[in-house]
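Usage

Read records sequentially. Each one opens with the input sequence:
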Amino acid sequence: MLDVLEIIGALAILVAFGASQRDLISLHQWSYLWLNLTGSLLLAVLAWHDRSWGFLLLEGVWALVTAWSMIGKARGEDGNEAAAH
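and closes with the structure output:
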């Protein structure tokens, strides 16, 4: 069962990445952010369960960065402030 959850988490991230590379969704769309957050959180929990500390670091930071982007989007920031400077 844990393998199935791991595959679901990886697929969520890969679908978001693939769709953004094909210009089907933007990096700033809710769908992209939710797929990334869901996938990275799921993989982080599984990494914690398996005591895979490097993978936990990777996925935990991925989830935090995505959550930070979602908070900014909810506040009305468009995500392009850094590019404008």
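Summary fields computed downstream for this record:
- The chain has a mean pLDDT of 92.
- The helical segments are 2-21, 30-50, 53-74, 81-84.
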